[in-house]
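STRUCTURE:
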């Protein structure tokens, strides 16, 4: 792979498990060498890497929703997919763009958008206006004044999957609960035989209130756990009518209670087969 000559302060990483070599930006204040060491070792989201390696072909449209620095975008493109990547936070989007631009062998396969993904479409919106809808209240507190476009995931899939099969990586820090309530989106995913790599983030869009009094704190924790159970129960029930829910190791989750119990125990990554 040949890299652009003007990509300064970058490092080359090799992912031996998928025979892939990439050039990426390493920043002390953003995605530093420790992060990229983890990526290179295969310890960063290994289940997602395995799923991409298993399912991505030249007939795949990969939607990287919550792309951050673009690790999975670059992997999917290197495996042959057409990629559409979404990242609303400006400094993360700039890192994504730099990483794409310094890998010319795959950059023509990638469209990147500084956008929030939702079930609506707007030309411009402040990030803080999308708290609980498309982003989490605890993820980007220093970026809430930024402005981003909002794209409709339903339209994105229909526009890009006339002949390609959609594979969606959905990692949006709690906003997945709202997005996956949309029956029209779920119907489109089902009609297109989509695969969704889902990361759930219980409580991220509604963080637990922190009180100083011990009794109040304990009560808040109980309420927090109960509400997360209900959220996950509803999520599973919404999904099961349209798809098969499996853990990232492809073991099927056969009940809402099991799904809620695993989420409470820290199992946050699932594959949805529509």
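SEQUENCE:
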């Amino acid at each position: 792979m040949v890299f652009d000559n003007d990509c300064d302060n970058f490092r080359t990483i090799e992912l031996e498990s998928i025979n892939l070599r990439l050039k990426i930006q390493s920043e002390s204040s953003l995605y530093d060498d420790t992060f990229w060491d983890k990526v290179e070792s295969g310890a960063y989201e290994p289940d997602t890497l395995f799923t991409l390696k298993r399912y991505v072909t030249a007939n795949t449209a990969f939607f990287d929703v919550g792309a951050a620095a673009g690790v999975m975008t670059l992997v999917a493109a290197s495996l042959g997919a057409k990629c559409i990547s979404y990242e609303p936070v400006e400094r993360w989007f700039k890192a994504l763009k730099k990483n794409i631009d310094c890998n010319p062998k795959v950059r023509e396969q990638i469209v990147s958008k500084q956008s929030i993904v939702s079930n609506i479409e707007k030309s411009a919106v402040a990030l803080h206006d999308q708290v609980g809808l498309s982003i989490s209240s605890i993820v980007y507190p220093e970026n809430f004044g930024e402005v981003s476009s909002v794209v409709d995931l339903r339209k994105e899939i229909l526009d890009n999957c006339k002949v390609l099969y959609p594979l969606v990586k959905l990692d949006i820090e709690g906003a997945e609960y709202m997005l996956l309530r949309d029956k029209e989106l779920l119907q489109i995913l089902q009609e297109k035989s989509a695969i969704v790599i889902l990361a759930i983030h219980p409580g991220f869009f509604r963080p637990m209130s922190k009180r100083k009094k011990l009794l109040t704190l304990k009560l808040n924790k109980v309420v927090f756990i109960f509400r997360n159970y209900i959220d996950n129960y509803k999520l599973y029930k919404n999904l099961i009518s349209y798809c098969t829910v499996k853990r990232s190791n492809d073991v099927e989750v056969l009940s809402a209670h099991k799904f809620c119990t695993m989420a409470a125990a820290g199992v946050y990554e699932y594959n949805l087969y529509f």
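REMARK: Residues 214-240 form the longest helix (27 residues).
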